[in-house]
From TrEMBL, chain A:
Keywords: 2Fe-2S, 4Fe-4S, Iron, Iron-sulfur, Membrane, Metal-binding, NAD, Oxidoreductase, Repeat, Translocase. Residues 77-116 form the 4Fe-4S His(Cys)3-ligated-type domain. PROSITE patterns: 4FE4S_FER_1, 4FE4S_FER_2, 4FE4S_HC3, COMPLEX1_75K_1. It comes from the Bacteria. It holds the Pfam family NADH-G_4Fe-4S_3. InterPro entries: 2Fe-2S_ferredoxin-like_sf, 2Fe-2S_ferredoxin-type, 4Fe4S_Fe-S-bd, 4Fe4S_Fe_S_CS, Cytosolic_Fe-S_CAF, Fe_hydrogenase, Fe_hydrogenase_lsu_C, Fe_hydrogenase_ssu. This is Hydrogenase, Fe-only. Residues 136-166, 179-208 form the 4Fe-4S ferredoxin-type domain.
Automatic annotation (TrEMBL), chain B:
It comes from the Bacteria. The keyword Oxidoreductase applies. The lineage of its organism: Bacteria, Bacillati, Bacillota, Clostridia, Eubacteriales. Gene3D superfamilies: 3.10.20.600, 3.30.70.20, 6.10.250.1450, Glutaredoxin (3.40.30.10), NADH-ubiquinone oxidoreductase 51kDa subunit (3.40.50.11540), NADH-ubiquinone oxidoreductase 51kDa subunit, iron-sulphur binding domain (1.20.1440.230). This is NADH:ubiquinone oxidoreductase, NADH-binding (51 kD) subunit. One of its GO terms (molecular function) is oxidoreductase activity. Residues 566-595, 596-623 form the 4Fe-4S ferredoxin-type domain. InterPro entries: 4Fe4S_Fe-S-bd (IPR017896), NADH-UbQ_OxRdtase_51kDa_CS (IPR001949), Nuo51_FMN-bd (IPR011538), Nuo51_FMN-bd_sf (IPR037225), Nuop51_4Fe4S-bd (IPR019575), Nuop51_4Fe4S-bd_sf (IPR037207), Soluble_ligand-bd (IPR019554), Thioredoxin-like_sf (IPR036249). NCBIfam families: PRK13596.1 (NF010120).
Amino acid sequence: MGNMIIDGQIVEFNEEKNILAVIRKAGIELPTFCYHSELSVYGACRMCMVEDKWGSTLTSCSTPPKDGMEVWTNTEKLKKHRKMILELLLANHDRDCTTCEKSGRCKLQEIALKVGVKKIRFGQEKKEMPVDDLGPSIVRNPNKCILCGDCVRACQEIQGVGVLDFAYRGSKLQVTTAFNKALHQVDCVNCGQCRVVCPTGALMIKKDMDRAYEALQDKNKRVIAQIAPAVRVAIGEEFGMEPGAITMGKIVAALRKLGFDQIFDTAVGADLTVIEEAEELMDRIQNRDKLPLFSSCCPAWFKYAEQKHPELMDNVSSCRSPQQMFGVVIKEQFKKLYKDDRKENIVIAIMPCTAKKFEAARPENKTGGIPDVDMVITTQELAIMIQENGIVFNELEDEALDMPFGFTSGAGVIFGVSGGVSEAVLRYYYKERTAAVLQGISYSGVRGMEGVKEATAEIDGQKVRIGVAHGLKNAENLIKKILRGEEKFDFVEVMACPGGCVGGAGQPIPQNNDVRRKRARGIYKVDTASPIKRSEDNPAIEALYEGVLKSNREILHRHHK
Amino acid sequence: MKINNLKELKAFSAKSTNALDNQKKKVLVCAGTGCVAGGSIEIYNRIRELIDAHELLVDLELDYEKEGIGVKKSGCHGFCEMGPLVRIEPENYLYLRVQFEDCVEIVEKTLINNEPIERLMYSAENRIYKAQEDIPFYHKQTRMVLKNCGSINAESFAEYVAKGGYEALSKVLFEMKPDEVCQSIIDSNLRGRGGGGYPAGRKWAQVLRQDSEVKYVVCNGDEGDPGAFMDRSIMEGDPHGVIEGMLIAGYATKSTAGYIYVRAEYPLAVERLRIAIEDARKHGLLGKNILNSGFSFDININKGAGAFVCGEGSALTASIEGERGMPRVKPPRTVEKGLWQKPTVLNNVETFANVPLIIKNGSSWFKGIGPENSPGTKAFAITGNVNNTGLIEVPMGTTLREVIFDIGGGIKDGKKFKAVQIGGPSGGCLTEEHLDLPLDFDSLKKVGAMIGSGGLVVMDEDTCMVEVARFFMNFTQNESCGKCVPCREGTKRMLEILEKIVEGKGTVGDLDLLEELADTISSTALCGLGKSAASPVASTLKHFRKEYVEHVVDKKCVTHTCKALGSIVIEKEKCKGCSKCARLCPVQAIVGKVKEPYTINPDKCIKCGACIEACAFKAIKEA
C-alpha cells in the first residue's frame, strides 16, 4: 500500500508486485515482449524501462513499487533507448511481414509501429534456420524468434514440461529443443501454450485449413462438423466481441455457408464420456481398485502421463475423449444411416486445442486405418476461414444444429472449463433432480481458476474425494502428493491448459486469467440456459445406447498401449 | 590426524613452526601455471633428487625433528616474465629462468656451499640483485595477500599453520560473536576485489540479518578477463588463505556451507584447492563442530564450464544450481535470495584472502594501508608491452606510473607508452594524462574506468586503439549470454561496425552510431557485464577519437596494425630490379622489368608482407 508518482501523477498501489502493473493501472501502456503476469519476471527485452528521479534507468517489470517512488515512463532518453532496442530487434528479424501469418497479430509489428521505428541502420542478415513443421500441432520457425523466452517459461512454469530452452551464447543464442530435434521427437505434449505467449510468428498453430477446404469442395464427401464447447465462447473475440460472448448459432450458420453438410455439438460426445467415466469410477470405488481414477479427455495430459508417469497409466480412465467418442459414434451411425450412398463421411472437429490435432492422428484413434476424426480445425483457423470467405460473422442469423445429435446437456458443455468434467460426473451420481442439488455441486469447490481444487461429495452414503488440476505443473504437484501418500483422491481431473479448454492454445489471443474467466462465465451461462442439465437426460444419448452402441459399447474406450 | 580443539591447534602450530625452523634452508620452486609450463616441476623433482642424494632432504609433514633442507612447490612468485623461478631461503635469493641443467649447480653451490649463483640473478644497469626484495619489480610492492604465494609450500597444511594460518579463524571462533566479525570487516572498509568495490562487511551484515536456517558462502573464482590471473595465483599459491577467509565469513553470517566456483580452465587451482579442502577436513578445520566451537562448515568446489558471464553473481549461482549461467534481474539481491534461493555471501577470491589478515592484524591496521575510502592492497596482473609482466600487489592508491614504470620496468624495446586497458573487457583505457592517477575504486570511477578484478594490459605506441576496441568487443560479443537485447544485439552490431572500420570501410556516421549504441547498452543492459560491455569502445572513442577519424576519413592506420588500411610501396631509389619480390608475390601484384625499379599494383596487393621480408635491399615498406 502506498503512493507512487508516475510522470508527475500520484498513483495509488496496493497488491501490485511491480511498478509496471502500477503504471498500466495508471493508464500508461508501456511496451513489453518478455513480461507476462502469469510467468516469472525475466527482464530481458528492456522495453519497460523507466527513469527514476536520479536519472537511472530501471526495468519496471522487476522493480517492486515503494511509497513515494518517483518514475518517468517516457523521457526523451527512454524513447531513444526503446527505439534503438527495437531497431536492433528488427534488424535481426525476418521482415516478411506481408506474407507472415502473424501479421496483424504480431506484437513486434504492433510495438514497432507504436514506438515509431522509421529506419533500420543495420544490415539485415537473412537467417535461414530450418522451420520445424513436422509435428501435428505446432510449427516452430526460429527465424522469427526474438528470444524473449516467453515460450521457454510457459513450457517450464505452466506445464513443467520444459522441452524448449536456450542454447548457444551471444548473438548465436537460440531457443530450441534438446539436440535441436523436431517438437514431435521430444516430450512436447502439443498443448501449444508456447504459441499462446509467443509475440511473433515463431510459434504458430499447424494449420489444417487447406485439407478442410479440399474436403468441403469434394462432392463425394459428406463433411460433418463437431464443435467443442469452448469454441462458442471465444471465437467472437476474433470479430471484436467480448470474451465469453456465446456465438454457437453464428458458428453453425458460418459452417453451413462454408459448406459443411452436418453440424453437431461435441458436447454430445462429452455426455457419452460422462456416463462411461462415471460408471468406470463407480466400479473402481466399489472394488477399491486402481484409485484415484484420472480423467483422460485432455490429449496433452494423456501424453504427459504416458511419458512421465507410465506407472499411473492403469489409473487413467480407459474412456476415449469426447472428440474421439463422438467421431467414432458419428461414423458408426452414418455408416448405417447412409448405407446406400457412396459418399465418404469426413469428420472435422472444431476445437480450442492444438493437442487435439495430435490426438486425432494417434493410431489407436483409427478404425480400419481411417481416422475416427479426420481433421481438427482450431478456433483461430475457423475464424480465418470465415474471414477468407467473406462471411460477416457478426451479422449472421443464428442457426440450429442438425439432428439427430442436435440436443446437448449442460453437463456436456461445461467440459470446456476446468472442473467441468468433475461437475458433470457428480451430476450423474446425484439422482435427485432439484436445483438445490445442482447448486450444491457447483459450490462444492470444482469451479474457479485456482490451479488445484478439491471437492468432496457424498454419494449413497459414500464419501468421494475429487481433485481438479489445470496446468500440468499443478497436476504434477498434485500427483507427487498422491504418490507420497499425502493426498487421497478417488477421482482426479486434469486439464493441461490454464482454465481448461477455454484457455486452449487454439483459441484467440491474447489470453490471460481475465479472458479465461469471462469465457468460463459464458460456458456456465450456456449451462444455465440449457433445459437438460444431466448427460443421461439427453435424448440423443439414450438413442445411441439403444442404437449403435447397444452391443458395441467398447468402441468408446481405448486400449492403452 | 584431527585437531579437536584450540589447544591441539596451538600444539600443532608449535610443532610445525619448529619443524619449519629445522629446515635450515628452503628451496621454493615456483609451481604457478606459468612456471609449470616452463618446466618447473622437472626442476623441483631434480633438486629434490639431488638433495636427497646428500641425505639432507626433510619434508615438514614427514619429519618434524630432523634438520636439513626443505624443497617445496610454491605458488606464483609473480615475476612470470622471468620464470621458471627458484627462491632460496633464508638468503632470499631469487634465481631466474632456471633450467633443468642448472639444478646441480644450485644444489652444490648455493645449498651445500652457501654461494650465490650470480648468473641466475636479476641484473640491471650493471647491478646484480641478490635478494628478491631488492629487485625493482618487488621493491615497490606490498605483498600481503600474496605473501604466502611463493614463500610456502602451496600443498602443505602444516606449513600454512606454521606461518600463522587458522589463527584468525580461532580468534573469531573463540573470542568474537558473528556480528562483531561483521563489524570489524565493516570497520576495515574492505571493498570487494571482484570489480564492484561493494563493502564486504556490509554484505556480510545483511546476510547475517536474514532470517533463514540455511545460508551460503560462495567464493567467485571465475576469473575470466583476458590477461588476468590474480585470483588464479592466490588459489594456486595460498588455497588455505581462501578457505580460512570463507570459514570466517561463514561464522560471521551463520552460514553452514560454502562453494568455490573455479574456472575449469584453472586445473591447477582446482587441484590445490581440492588438496587444501581435504587436508582441512582431515584436520577438523572443515566439517562438524570445528575445534569444538559448535560451528560447522564445509566447502565444495564447483568447476565452471567456460562462460565469462558466470563471473556475474546471479549467473554464477545459477550455474552452481546446474542451470544455464544467465544473470537474472534484481531484486531480490543475492544477500536475500542467492544460491538455491537462500541468503548468500558472494565475494571473490582476493576479498576472502584479505579476511584472515584483517582479523589477525585488526581493522585499523588494514585501514592504515592505502587511501581511506579504498584501503588495503590490490593485486594486479600486468601484461602487454611492458618489460616485467607478472603478478604484483601494491597498496591501493599507487599511481599507474609507479606500477608501469617502476614495477613493470617501463615499455618494452624503449617504445613510448600509449595506453593501458584496466579492468578487462568491462573496463576502459587510460592514457598518458592518467599516469599519475591513484589506483583506487573511486579515482578510477571518476575518469570512467574501473579497477575491475585487476587486469592491466599495457599498450605501446604501435598499438591501434580501434583494433583494441574491436578485440574486446569480439570477446564481449562471444561471451554475452544473449539474454537481454541491448547486450546480445547491440554488441553484435558494434562489432560489425568496428570490423568495417578496421577494414577501411567505415564512415563518419559509424562513429556516431557506435556512440549511440554504447549509450543504449550501458543504460539498458541487464547485468553489470552487459552495462560495461561497450566501455572499451566508449573510452577509446573518447581518448583516441582522432585515430578513429583517421581510419574512417583518411583510411589510414598510423600504427600499420590494420592491414586493410595500409599500402605497400617500392622505393624506386632503392630497388635494384632483382625481381625476387615479383616472383614471390602470391597474387602477381608486382610488375616490372629486370634491373629496373618494380612497382606494386595496389588493387591486386593483399598486403601479406611477403615482399617486405624478401627484399634484400629494404626497398619495400608499408606506407
